[in-house]
Amino acid sequence: MDYGGNAFRGRGEHMKEFLRSVFNLCANPYASVIFRWAVGLIFIYASMDKLLHPSAFAVAVHNYKILPGSFINLVAITLPLLELVCGILLIIGLFPRAAAFILSILLIFFFSALSISLYRGIDISCGCFSVSTTADKIGISYMMRDLLVLAMSLQILFFDGNLLSIAALFPTRYR
Amino acid sequence: MAVKGKTRIFQQVIIILLFSIATALMTNALRSNSLPLVGDWSQGTFSLKAEFDIPTVPLEGAVVKFLSDEALFLDARSRADYQLGHIQGALNLPVHEGDFGRRLQEFSLKVDHEKELIVYCDGTSCSLSPKLASVLKGLGYRDVKILINGWTEWTMAGMPFEVGGNT
Q1: Is the model's pLDDT at A90 over the cut of 90?
Q2: In angstroms, what separates the C-alpha of B116 from chain A's closest C-alpha?
Q3: CB of B111 less than 8 A from some CB of A
Q4: Cβ-Cβ contacts under 8 Å for A138 (sequence gap 6 or more)
């Protein structure tokens, strides 16, 4: 007589099912849409002050004392525009996974820069959203915030389903 | 890791990077507060050589600029020297002090790239003002000049100075 599968399932089976439901939750295409908008707006907002004040941003980059001097100006020129472009691409949904890939790499860099600076104990302003020196002193909360945005960005990279995006208009091979 | 369409994403990453870098360089070349592609960030190391060639201004020229209020004077000496006495209205940007980065960041937010700047320290062989002037050039300030032996020349000429002040 068959007593049904459930009564005899082992622990492993339950674990598998749990992981599968977590995966399904992560892979939810609607979550990707929300995350695309959230990450996109965050990076567009973050790029504004830096685009307006390139030299103050260059000094902010220099104050981390991580990059070699000859790269600082190039980073100060290109990074804000890269953030803006990726932010816009995420929101309109053109190349969203590629944009999320670039932003994830950036967020990992930012996380490393923050942790190195906190470890060294240097007192600098973050230069994340504003280039002013009065606000934005770096701290652990900035690293947590970075990880949160990184999580959203990775979700987009792995699971974006082209919902509500321009990419959906193109044939699959161009997405 | 299983990312679907890896090659396609890789190609798109290249497209985004090239587009962003090209646009960034183009807008930087066209905008008024542009940055030079390479700045002078060597202060803090032992290099005393300035990266940019900076013109000097004779005392008479500096006095004219001071009286017509056309130029902003910058004191590159230490905070202590600045407080003992500095050219009237001069700002202090002490190249060799720990909070130079923060001060420079504040300065670059406040002062426009078109502003005429006259940098001075003290003594004919003082390296602080060429250093500061070079850093400012590297940040995109167009009109930076050095007043050699500035503090001594200024006081010898009996020009107005201030003591103390918020540095």
Answers
A1: yes
A2: 17
A3: no
A4: A114, A117, A118, A124, A125, A126
